[in-house]
Design goal:
By secondary structure, this protein is an alpha+beta fold. The strands form 3 sheets. It has a 6-stranded mixed β-sheet, with helices on both faces. A 4-stranded antiparallel β-sheet has the order 10-11-9-12. It has a 3-stranded antiparallel β-sheet with strand order 2-7-8, with helices on both faces. It is globular, with a radius of gyration of 21 Å. It binds adenosine-5'-diphosphate (ADP) and magnesium ion.
Length: 399
Amino acid sequence: MNQTLEWDEDSRAERAADTFRRLFGGPPDGMWAAPGRVNLIGEHTDYNDGFALPMALPHTTLLAARARTDGRLRLHSAQGDGRITDLAVAALDPDAVTGWAAYPAGVVWALAEAGHPVGGADLHFDSTVPTGAGLSSSAALECAVAVAYDDLYGLRLPGPELARIAQRAENAFAGVPCGIMDQMASVCCTAGAALHLDARSPQDHRQVPFDLQGQGLRLLVIDTRVSHDLGDGAYAALRAGCERAAALLGLPALRDLPPGELARALRILPAELAPLVRHVVTENARVAEAVSRLREGDVAALGPILTAGHASLRDDYRVSCPETDLAVTAALGAGALGARMTGGGFGGSVIALVEAGQEDAVGVSVTTAFGAAGHRPPRILCVTPAAGAHRLAPPLGTR
Ligand code: ADP
Ligand code: MG
């Protein structure tokens, strides 16, 4: 199990501040952090105006930042290509920036486009969020910029508005058609809780206590380290299918189909749309069920809900793949209380709820099954629900 990650934000921040000084010739104005996320349940529901239950990871993107008065935006990442990207804020345009810099630059563009008085900055990122693993390193990158700019330029925007700006950056500037969940999780989650999110009214999100430790449980994130290329086009097709189904049913969104009317809807929908609708409606019901169980303090009850969610994504929504299916089967076979793929699908990560003390057995079982199937070894992390995006306290002596 990979537990070599450096959790200590202070020592990571010190290193990032040193690099910032070396790159940009002076100290940063401050340090910010934004986490990656896993979604416990509620997949492919956000763009159907539905519900989700993500939690923030202890893995964060740190940002050392300093405002500039000359309108330049200079970007550097420890996980980038070693170069500084130098842009003019006034000339930011969705077609003008390619590669990783589009995510942070997109946030500055989206803030300016929304009429907020923002200027330039020097930004250095250093992240422990695995990239491309379905854990939202892209949202962490965006949300770090959103919270830093909120402070540096005195915007005082509410969390859901910062999340919306970050989502707009990803959609319109980086060109990735994601829903609002990733950014809401990165900005609005709190430590020890999952975030009950209603994508129709993100401002009404609720914190749901998620006490894994107190219940003798652990949550594993199994990064399958595969990402099948059909992902992007398939995502757009699924979204379009859901919108068409809602239109055929005369509803604003699939979220508006009550579970009691599902059977009738399935009879009248075209065969290719019916399973999509069944997934979305039952998945929203699973979120409600999970929230009820967690509010009762019964974390273990989440297990069967996760496993049912996986079956729905595999059989109805069809966004699973052999590697995620194998990780789920192997985890359950080794005694996990529940497991499912998380994120958009076609690879990425699986989560498994396990009894404390079973982490290694489940990890070994999944790794062995991957080896036997000829897959690369997965990367396995044991995670706890962490804090959303925040500013780091200045080091002692400078306060
Ligand atoms: P996920 O969000 O699931 O990790 P995405 O494909 O949405 O996967 O986003 C991954 C992309 O985000 C990377 O390819 C890279 O362009 C960008 N990215 C994320 N974190 C960083 C970082 N710390 N430094 C540079 N680029 C990053
Ligand atoms: Mg992403």
